[in-house]
Amino acid sequence: MNPIQPFLIFACSILVLAGCRENQTDPDEIKAGKPRKQQFVIKVLPLGPVDKGSIEAAVSALEKYAGPVTLLKPQELPSHSFYAPRNRYRADKLIKWMDAKAERGEVYVGLTSSDISTTKDNIEDFGVIGLGYRPGRACVISSFRLKNKANFYKVVLHEVAHAAGLPHCPEKSCFLRDAKGGDPTGEETGFCSKCEKFLQSKGWVFELKQG
Predict the structure, then answer these.
(1) Among 24, 57, 166, 197, whose CB has the most other CB atoms within 10 angstroms?
(2) Do the beta carbons of residue 106 and residue 40 sit within 8 Å?
(3) CA distance 122 to 99
(4) pLDDT average per 10 residues of sequence, the chain (211 residues)
(5) CA 129, CA 38: separation in Å to the nearest integer?
(6) The whole model's pTM is what?
């Protein structure tokens, strides 16, 4: 099979954006049947000062939707990822740094309150709220540009679902909605049935729906 070059998929604009980079195409087919065992271990890594409540909400949501989570000891943001001209951190470098830590079957989820950015089209330094690969072994989410910090966990679920291979969704209330220049997290209420089936096929448990 020929390798497919990664490309960026963005969920929001420079104001608020959650996105992913796609490592390979993923069939937009939902497999029927019983949920399989969780296919990867989620490791949450706080980076720099992060609100304790935001971390707890993110871990709780991941456990209830995706399964067991390991909360790692907080670390400082690596200096090599700092982008001095804009006083923020490069999301792509953070992802590469965490990807190098991830062992087979692991996904690192970096949480930070610092501003992060990446390159989008002809914009060299584009402010984002989240970034990851689809599928991938690492993603990073920042609360810096989020209007309502209480919705932080929704962006975390968005990015980790990308890591599981889920693309953006056209449903306006779905966590995988492509924001297209805005912050729709206030309108998001959960995963739509199609996205839920896809994630269940990857071993997600969806305890929130039952509780």
Answers:
(1) 166
(2) yes
(3) 25
(4) 40 44 41 52 96 96 94 98 97 97 95 94 88 93 93 96 95 89 85 96 75 43
(5) 26
(6) 0.82
